[in-house]
Amino acid sequence: MKILYSCLSKSWGGMEMVTLTGIKQLLKHNIIVELLCANDSRLQLEANNLGIIIHSVNISKLPNPITILKTSTIIKSGCYDLIHSHASKDLWVIVPALKIIKNKTLLFFTKHIGSFILKKDYLHNKIYSRINVAIAISSVIKNNLIDTTSLPPHKIELIYNGVDAKKFNPTISNRDRVRKEFSYSDNDIVIGMIARFSPGKGHRRILRSAKILSTKFINLKFMIVGEASRGEDDYANRIKSLSQNLKIENLILTGFRSDIPDVISAFDIFIFPSHAEAFGIALIEAMAMEKPSVCANSDGVLDIAVDGKTNILFQNKNAEDLAKKTEKLILDENLRLSIGKAARERVLKMFDIEIVTDKIIESYNNYLNRN
C-alpha cells in the first residue's frame, strides 16, 4: 500500500504532531507513506529529520494555481493507493489537483478541529463530495462534520487519536531528574499543564486557580509547559503578564520541552483546562503516565474522561471550580493513585496508538477492497 499524507499547515500543534505520528506508525506496518507539506514549515523540518519522503509546496491564504498544478503532478507520478489529508484547507488544493488529472484515487480526510462556519454552499459541496471517508477524532467533531458540511453520516468514521503507551510509560520515566532540575522536594506537590500558548487552552483558568490554591497550601508548585505557535505570540505575552500580575511565585513557565514523558512523570497532578478541545493529546499522554487529572467538562474531553474514576471534571471556564476539584486531589494521595491507575488502564484499552493504527489500516483496506 502506498499513501500520500498531507498537512499543509505552517503551525506546530496537535494536528501536525498527529500527522507525523501517523506516518511513523504506518511505516512500522510496512506501508509506504510520503508527505505533502508546506514549504519552510515545522512539519517539513520534523519529517525531514526522520527521513520521510517529502513533497513541499508553497501555501498562501487563497488556493494557488501553481501549487494545485504541482500537487497534481505529485499525485500523478506517485501512483498512490490513497490520499489522506489532515487539514481541511488541504482539500482546496488536493481536490482540484485530482480533478485536473481526472484521478479517482481514494481520498481520506481526518477532521482535527471543529468549525463554526457552515460549509454547505456549492463550492464546499463540490469539495466535500470528493471525500470517500472522513475520520472524526471525537464525537463532538463527528457531530460538527454532520452539522456544518454536506457529508452523509455513512461517510464519517469515529477514530480517536492515540498515544504511544510504550513511550508514555511510568515505569521507564525519570521523575527525579526533572524535579531536581527545578529544585522540587519530595514534599512538594507539582501541578502541571502542557499546551501551546493558544486561545482556548485555558491558561487563565490554571493561573487563577493556582492563585487560589497557593493561599491554602504552602507545598504547591505549578509548571506550565509549552510555547507559542505561529501567530500566537501576543496571547503568550498576555498570559505571561497575567502570571506576573497575579504574583504567583511558585510558578514556572518552562517553554518548549522535548522530554515530555519525564516532565509529566515529575507532576503529581495534571491540569487540562482547555474549554474547546477537539480531543486532547496531552490529556491521554498524562493518563498513560498514570497521572490524575482535572479536566474541563466539555467537547472532546467527554470522550476521554470518566468523571470520578479516570479523571475529575470541573465546570468549564470556572477557575474556582477548577481550584475546588484540584484541592480534592491535593488532600488525598490515595485518590491520586487510584485515578492515575484507572487512567492508564483506559488509555491501554481505548487510546493506545497501536489500536488506533489498526483501526485506520482496517478502514483503508475496507475501502481499497471495494474498488
Secondary structure: number of strands? 13
Uncertain stretches of 5 or more adjacent residues: none
Helix content: 40-55%
Number of helices: 15
- Average of per-residue pLDDT values: 94
Task: Name the structural class.
Answer: alpha/beta
Task: Describe the largest sheet.
Answer: 7 strands, parallel
SSE series: EHEHEHEHEHEHEHEHEHEHEHEHEHHH
Q: Can you put this structure into words, describing what you see?
A:
This protein is α/β, with parallel strands linked by helices. The chain has helices spanning 14-28, 42-49, 65-78, 91-100, 122-129, 139-148, 175-181, 203-214, 233-245, 260-266, 281-288, 301-304, 319-331, 333-350, 353-368; strands spanning 2-7, 32-38, 53-57, 82-85, 106-111, 133-136, 156-158, 189-194, 220-225, 251-255, 269-272, 293-296, 312-314. The strands form two sheets. A seven-stranded parallel beta sheet has the order 3-2-1-4-5-6-7, sandwiched between helices. Strands 10-9-8-11-12-13 form a six-stranded parallel beta sheet, sandwiched between helices. Strand 1 (2-7), helix 1 and strand 2 form a beta-alpha-beta unit. Helix 7 (175-181) packs across helix 10 (260-266) and helix 8 packs across helix 13 (319-331). The radius of gyration is 21 Å and the shape is elongated. The two termini are 14 Å apart.
